[in-house]
Amino acid sequence: MKTKRKTGFLLIILVVSGLISISFLKNDLFAKTENRDLGRLFGDMGVLPIPAHTEPLEITLNDPYGRPVSLSEFRGKIVFVNFWTTWCLACVIEMPSMEKLHQKFKDKDFVMVAINLQEAAEKVKQFYKEYKLTFTTLLDTTGDVGAELGIRSIPTTFILDKNGRIIGKTLGPREWEGEKSIALFEYLTDRYVASSKSKSTH
């Protein structure tokens, strides 16, 4: 009788272990497929992939009207963070295409935030009025945020996952309203599932 019980117990352990192994295998295959899809879409847009193992990007700055805005307010959304200035020709060229991307995805899990580097609020407001821009802009009046993120050229864009972690980066302007960009952000907002685990780099 004891032998039968031991045998039955071992069978249960083996079955449970097998089911757990299958579950991990499926998750691993899903992650690999997802990473491959995202890698292809990033490659099409010249986005440098950033392994999502960092802490969420925490930034709080004022908008041109003096209202504080924190990136943490946008958890659950893909966040497009662009560093720019009004005197940067490439930024001026890029902004209209950013506006088109914003208009296409503003009603989905997507937020666009442009962070201006060390310019006066009135100048930024005038620029937004002239170019009919409607996405959020914040003022890095001291340049400290840009320096902390190692901004050495503009425009520089970061793409944050729905947990607020940087997953991609671009240097220089892009045609954000194009088909490849639309495909990327459709994937990110509709199908991309970031890991909920966040490993500290400290």
Structure description:
This protein has helices at 2-45, 89-105, 121-131, 144-148, 179-190; strands at residues 48-49, 60-62, 68-70, 78-84, 110-117, 136-140, 156-160, 166-171. By secondary structure, it is α/β, with parallel strands linked by helices. The longest helix is centred in the first third of the chain and has 44 residues, at 2-45. The strands form 2 sheets. The chain has a 6-stranded mixed beta sheet with strand order 1-8-7-4-5-6. The protein contains 5 helices and 8 strands. The termini are far apart. Strand 2 (60-62) and strand 3 (68-70) form a beta hairpin. Residues 12-33 and 197-202 have low confidence and may be disordered.
Q: Would you list the SSEs in sequence order as H and E?
A: HEEEEHEHEHEEH
How many beta-strand elements?
A: 8
Fraction of residues in H or I helices: 40-55%
Secondary-structure-based class equals alpha/beta
Q: How would the global form be characterised?
A: globular
Which strand-content bin applies to the residues?
A: 15-25%
Strands of the largest sheet, in order across it? 1-8-7-4-5-6
User: Biggest β-sheet, characterized?
Assistant: 6 strands, mixed
Counting H and I runs of at least 4 residues, what is the number of helices? Answer: 5
List segments where confidence is low: pLDDT < 50 over at least 5 consecutive residues.
Answer: 12-33, 197-202
| Average pLDDT rating | 85
What Rg, in angstroms, do the CA atoms define?
22 Å
Query: Termini separation (Å)?
Result: 55 Å
List keywords for this structure.
six-stranded mixed β-sheet, globular, 8 strands, 202 residues, 5 helices
